[in-house]
Amino acid sequence: MLESFVYTEDNVKIAINHYKNGYDDVVIICPGWFMTKDSKAFMTLAQDFCERYDVIVMDFRGHGKSSGFYTFTAKEVLDLFEVINYAKNKDFNYKNIYLCGFSLGGALVLNYSAKYNDVDKVIAVSAPSDFMKIENNMYLPDAWVPTLFKKFELARWMSIRAGSPFLKKERPIDLISDVKVPVLFVAGEKDPTVYPWHTELLYKNAKCPKKYVLFKNARHAEDLHMDFRNDFMQMCFDWLN
Predict the structure, then answer these.
(1) Residue 98: strand pairing partners
(2) pTM as predicted
């Protein structure tokens, strides 16, 4: 695994982990708020994708080893733009570039694709249709129990730097009809943070080739992979192949 850095047009340093396995295709994994490329959840996810693809996992601004402050999707498309440019390097010679985003990372892969439509396929897991309508019921056991007992990593928590959540944002629901690349929409039936109706609404309004998968008795974003690892990976492999 190679750790590299790219710089955005507003001079934010973005850290990436690049797993070079000799494949023709690469999956770019985009974590959500409060998750990083070096978290156990996303390192495990990367290892699973490495069975069939090269993999790039990124830290959005304000997370992990990236600089700046997180803006809750207001500016993070700039981060993804540079990571995709990195993947387009002729030295890598990738035939296909795939995006896999979780939670706000899912919103970002949709917003990016609507603007550029220059990747080959997209997987959006627990993506909100509108940041201002995210439920985020942190008091529910399904929200705080996994965070406390499965995903508590002090170093990661200490690395998070939040900016203003009130900056103007583009809503995925307003852009989804502009996405032309195939999108797999994935939701957890018991998601306490982004209810499944968000994913259903995005799927309904998408005009691209698409598929919707609802995981029964599942929670939020990377929890789907953590709790249903084999089924989740098979779903991703089937979609990308």
Answers:
(1) 27, 121
(2) 0.95
